[in-house]
Design brief:
CATH topology: TIM Barrel
Structural class: alpha/beta
Number of domains: 1
Number of strands: 10
Strand content: 25-35%
Number of helices: 6
Shape: globular
CATH architecture: Alpha-Beta Barrel
CATH class: Alpha Beta
CATH superfamily: Metal-dependent hydrolases
Largest sheet: 10 strands, mixed
Helix content: 25-40%
Length: 220
């Protein structure tokens, strides 16, 4: 079955997002999505399974010296938030049976050797479309071209921190069923199609203003 999924969404658990779970679910319905991956910063979402008919895939977004990694399909993580070595993230993700995705890799993908290196690391996929990418028209073409050439599975996600951008980029996954395990397996096998558009200047400004406001609030 073909499932339309936004595989990169942040809720308030990420601390730099204003999206509540209810807002995420309702926006997913409006956009015609079947599900969302909640990729919180440094800590996994505890929400898992169906919420009002929308499939929720728990996960997190980890920071490494070499870039950001989405870890999909986990609701626990033994590390505290903060920068970690890439091999530490990949080893723990493998231990938990998670899917790992290199998030918003541009401009590193301007180097063909980078994608070959990513493939050799054992990462499951690369996020070739990220609607929050400032250079979306260029980055999407470069990422798609290299991932296709090297046969690396691809995903797309909105990287939403405000509700209305949910679904701006999404992955169509050809899965055996509408279960988290089957979706993850389909991503590993590259049974995906990617679609999307950039968020636009207004959404980017909203996101920047939001982050500054939340940063000031956290210092009070």
């Amino acid at each position: 079955m073909r499932l339309k999924l936004d595989l990169h969404v942040h809720t308030r658990l990420s601390l730099d997002s204003v999206i509540t779970l209810d807002e995420a679910v309702e926006e997913a319905k409006v956009k015609g999505l079947h599900g969302l991956a909640l990729t919180e910063h440094g800590r996994p979402s505890k929400v898992k399974g169906f919420v009002k008919g929308i499939l929720i895939i728990p996960g997190l977004e980890e920071t490494t010296p070499l870039g950001h990694i989405l870890v999909l399909g986990i609701d626990r993580w033994r590390f505290k938030p903060g920068r970690k070595p890439l091999d530490t993230v990949l080893e723990e993700a493998e231990r938990l049976g998670a899917v790992t995705v290199f998030a918003h890799p541009f401009p590193r993908t301007l180097m063909t050797s980078f994608m070959s290196w990513v493939s050799g690391l054992g990462l499951d996929a690369v996020e070739v479309l990220n609607s929050g990418d400032l250079f979306f028209p260029i980055s999407s073409r470069v990422n798609l071209s290299l991932a296709s050439k090297l046969g690396i599975p691809m995903t797309a996600g909105s990287d939403s921190h405000i509700p209305r951008t949910i679904g701006y980029a999404y992955t169509v996954v050809e899965a055996e069923s509408m279960s988290i395990d089957d979706v993850l397996e389909a991503i590993r096998k590259g049974r995906t199609e990617v679609y999307g558009r950039r968020s636009g200047l207004k959404a980017r400004v909203e996101k920047i203003v939001l982050r500054r406001r939340l940063s000031r609030a956290s210092r009070l």
